[in-house]
Amino acid sequence: MARIERFEDLLAWQRGMDLVIRVYELSAVGRFAKDFALSNQIHRAAISVPSNIAEGFERRSRAEFHHSLTIAKGSCGEVRTQLHIAKRLGYITAEVANSALTQAEDVSRIISRLRTTVARQRDAVKKSGAR
After folding, report:
1. Are 97 and 32 in contact (CB under 8 A)?
2. Which residue ranges make up each domain of the chain?
3. Number of Cβ atoms within 10 Å of the Cβ of 17
4. Closest listed residue to residue 16, CA positions, set 109, 91, 94, 99
5. pLDDT by residue, tens only, the chain of 131 residues
């Protein structure tokens, strides 16, 4: 398998970016758009997903990348919680919420798989004594 040189080539980052756009689109209308606290919080959480993936990748340390992926995965959980809140408040329909929740869960699964791969690489480096 070819080594990925740019974070933009990571599926986790690409899907994280898609999630950001989805969150912005669904929070830009109706009562959701007027709830500045919730819309700001969900925007920040969604933005955190691809941002942390990019930051961790650019640090060029498997340990730091793994840590950043953990944060990105946690941010997916925040987005999901805020989508549930928006649904309960009636800001978005159950259908819209469920679709967005599925998308956030998919991103979380992709990040989990990447975290597992990075952890294996990190552990192999530790065993070898290299950086």
Report:
1. no
2. 8-128
3. 19
4. 109
5. 468 899 999 999 999 999 999 999 999 999 999 999 999 999 999 999 999 999 999 998 999 999 999 999 999 999 999 999 999 999 999 999 999 999 999 999 999 999 999 999 989 877 776 55
What are the E-state strand segments in 23-130?
A: none
Amino acid identity, residue 87?
K
CB distance 12 to 110 below 8 Å = yes
What homologous superfamily does CATH list for 8-128? Answer: 23S rRNA-intervening sequence (1.20.1440.60)
What is the C-alpha to C-alpha distance for residues 55 and 68, in angstroms, rounded to an integer?
Answer: 7
Q: Pick the closest to residue 80 from 131, 45, 110, 28 (CA basis).
A: 45
pTM score, two decimals? 0.92
